Amino acid sequence: MSASAERHSADNGRPRVPQAAFVAARAADAKLGRDTVILDMGDLLGVTDAFVITTAANRRMLRTIVDEVEKQVKEELGRAPRATEGYSDLTWVLMDYGDFLVHVFDPEARAYYDLEHLWGDAPRVRVPVAAGRTGDD
């Protein structure tokens, strides 16, 4: 089964999200990504199935989150991003995996671009909390 064919149902039973998006979200959460969310974009956007969105407290943590997402998706599923943008600026890094995109923001950029509001019709998919985190971290 191809990576893009492996999908999970959202909590409401309708939409489906690539397994790799969950791996990316858990990796971000494990490195203290804040307010990590997966948006199911399948019915709204024809070019990708999901967005993983998270916030890093500072540039060092942003770099750490991006590196951990890339490492975990590669180790667990053998996939690397097709492209990564914004790594030199470290205010908003976009990792393009084709069937899903990872957005790692600093707090100001996340508030400014407000993707959750922009794509408010996209179903949110629950992100399992990483081991050792309570969800209140």
Describe the structure.
It is a single chain. The protein has helices spanning 19-30, 59-77, 107-113, 115-118; strands spanning 7-9, 16-18, 34-40, 50-55, 83-85, 92-96, 100-105, 124-125. The protein is of the alpha+beta class. It has a single domain, classed as Beta Polymerase, domain 2. It has a six-stranded mixed sheet with strand order 5-6-7-4-3-8. Strands 1-2 form a two-stranded antiparallel sheet. A hairpin with a 3-residue loop joins strand 6 (92-96) and strand 7. The longest helix has 19 residues, at 59-77. The termini are far apart.
Please describe the topology of this protein:
Elements: E1 7-9, E2 16-18, H1 19-30, E3 34-40, E4 50-55, H2 59-77, E5 83-85, E6 92-96, E7 100-105, H3 107-113, H4 115-118, E8 124-125
Parallel strand pairs: 4-7
Antiparallel strand pairs: 1-2, 3-4, 3-8, 5-6, 6-7
Oligomerization status of the protein chains: single chain
Number of strands: 8
Order of helices and strands: EEHEEHEEEHHE
- DSSP summary: helix tally: 4
Number of separate structural domains = 1
CATH architecture: 2-Layer Sandwich
Instruction: Tell me the fraction of residues in β-strands, as a range.
Output: 25-35%
CATH homologous superfamily name?
A: Beta Polymerase, domain 2
Rg on CA atoms, Å:
14 Å
Average pLDDT metric: 86
Largest sheet strand order: 5-6-7-4-3-8
